[in-house]
Amino acid sequence: MDFLRHAYRLYNQSHIPFFAASLAYYALFSLMPLLFLLVGVFGLVLAGNEALLEAVRQRLSEVALLLFPTQPDLAQGLLKFLTSGAAPLTAGSFLVLFWSASNFFAALAYAMGVIFQTPPGFRNRLIALIAPGALGLGLILLALGGLSLAFILRYLPPELGFLRGSLEHVLPVLVTVGLFYLTYRLLPRPAPRRLHALSGAGFAALVWEGVRLGIPALLPRSQYELFYGPLAGFLLAMLGFYLSMWILLVGGLLARVLEDWHAPKG
């Protein structure tokens, strides 16, 4: 009971709902420059491929004539903007994306500092600058690993077919545990002990997996759209981001509580 009282007191002192909402805002804000970055990359691809450009122009002209019959040059103007402004749009979007992602990790480091009662410093800002690139590299490696795993599982012999379902369900959870564990070990200083960080990461990963599976069942998007219409997707994304950040911070809180609970008394 004392353990739960201490956890509840730290939960209130750390303002976890407030920080979860702030982190969700930063994460959602990062999607806009990411969208512009994808548009810029698409423009670069179009500028270097005449056949693809002509095919897109033809399809886009057909759609534009159906939607805007009074503006027949709309498709041509849009493609001209995409191809001529692709380079500055891509560069600008990348810089804004890096800036917003850096702010997200700086806010996350600050929230972890509040949970573990460590003052913010230059190290946290340095991690915030490095983390976006490391995250991008990690996502690329995860994608390559996923493709390799899918290729291996596809050609498994029949007698090892039971591994396919097991790996497909267990590996995502293990990756989530690893990401949470690295967050709890790298951001707060002094870092919690490995076992405590792993306990917090395991708890957070299991809760996150439960939320990931439970939200579609509890809030079917088809029914949600009856009330909110086109805003349903945006609201569900906000809810998903908020719950993800809340779970991440609660896992860190558990690691902090375990640190306090096993600290030498006196």
Automatic annotation (TrEMBL):
Keyword Transmembrane helix: yes
Transmembrane segments: 23-47, 94-116, 128-157, 169-187, 199-219, 231-255
Compartments reported by the entry: Cell membrane
Membrane topology: Multi-pass membrane protein
Keywords on record: Cell membrane, Membrane, Transmembrane, Transmembrane helix
Gene Ontology cellular component terms for the protein in this record: plasma membrane
InterPro entries: Virul_fac_BrkB
Name of the protein in its database record: Ribonuclease BN
Organism: Allomeiothermus silvanus (strain ATCC 700542 / DSM 9946 / NBRC 106475 / NCIMB 13440 / VI-R2)
